[in-house]
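To: structure subgroup
Subject: Chain for Friday's discussion

All,

I'm putting the inputs and outputs inline so they're searchable in the archive.
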Amino acid sequence: MKEFVMGVDIGTSSTKAVLFTEQGKVVHRHAISYQMKTDTRGKAELDPEQVFEAVCGAIRGVMLESKVNKDEILAVSFSAAMHSLILVDETGTPLTKCITWADGRSSGALNRMKQKFDLEELYQRTGTPIHAMSPFAKLCWLQETEPEKLKQAKRICGIKSYVLYRFFGKWVIDASLASGSGLFNPVTMKWEQMALELAGIPESKLPEVVVESEQLTGLSEASQEKLHLDADTPFVVGANDGSLANLGIQALGESDVTVTVGTSGAVRKIGHSFLPDEHGRTFCYRLTDGFFVRGGAVNNGGKIVEWALEQLAPRAIRNERDYEKLMTQAGEIPLGAEGLLFLPYLLGERAPYWTDDIRGAFLGLSESHTRAHMVRAVIEGVTLNLYSVYQEIQAEGDVLYVTGGIARQEIWCQLLADVFGHEVRVPYTVEGSSLGAAIIALEAFQKIQGFKLDGEPEIAARFFPDFKRHERYLAWHAVFVEAAEALMTSNRRIIEWLNEN
């Protein structure tokens, strides 16, 4: 009797394997962490071998610790972080590290590409914003910096494709992940020739695009032993992590909006049509047949609150890393931090500006402002920026589902409700992407229909907007946007000055 399905989420800081029942209940989880290698030039890489071993270890950990029999596993299904890039030689050996979405070294090459070509049409065809995060941008950069390595590469892939190759010897990528590469047209379901020509790569070097429900079988004897799985255990290719997070919390309605804040952040909404933004401010990625996800990802999420804790919090809160007390102190400060505004762009920004030529700032600072005011302004600044992203996909009647570290902070959840002007729900599950991957497998094996689990999703908490506060925040948000755009030129000049000195 096949009773369990495993969702494996390959992230940029860890790989997590979670075992679920066919009803979507968590049975057991095992996670293995790894470190991203960064430097001041914008590098943000992972070791592909280390990630592969983490995937193996997470799957093996679940199998051994849960004591589930091999023959009870219906399938293993995958989620993975978007926008990764690896060059691989003819023996399957990586020629590069795994270059992640956070790597910013391609910014210069992409800007030069923008000066030569009108890339708006490319965005409209692919739904991927023209930004350094994308594999398209990374390939443009490698053409400038390491053209010989690109010629030497037999395959150009992402981390999930590399892991599946190690297990099955096949180069595949699901259409969901491909749609975030900037190289793929999710309407025609083909690699976009305009992108390939601009990046200077042949289609033959890219993996075969398959649907998200594609199944791979035939684990080698070595892999069977390594994973503690049978040779005929189906591996479902799955989809990208952001889209699967929506699926995992069952936010499938056209009025369901997810707001995720972990290290970074994102605002997403599922629809049934491919609808790129006419101004290029949001992404539009494929989830699976008949489903697309629109929204925007931000660089400046929980990482900025962590910065505030380290730089602004009292020593006792800082030493204990007590985010709850940090939030409590911020909650005692009035709305708008008594005229103190914070632009949270310490890490450049993706949505809605899609530029690295932007920086953070406190505005309106006076001698009456305390550290608590500054922390309040930081939390409001991150939230106001998320609202800027939401404005591009908003509709009357929307309900927000909040996931990530933010979901544990009641003060922040209420702030979201007040700023966005909509009900905020905190789902009970914290395993969104892993469960989303499992749901793809359950649908593929006809255990569920329409990607819906039985029953309504469990909600741990609800927060409702105070509409008087919402009106005040709308006015404050207008100031926030005006300030961010007014400082663009100054920020660009600051960055140029730094580069010259």
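Points worth raising on Friday:
The radius of gyration is 22 Å.
The longest strand covers residues 14-21.

D.
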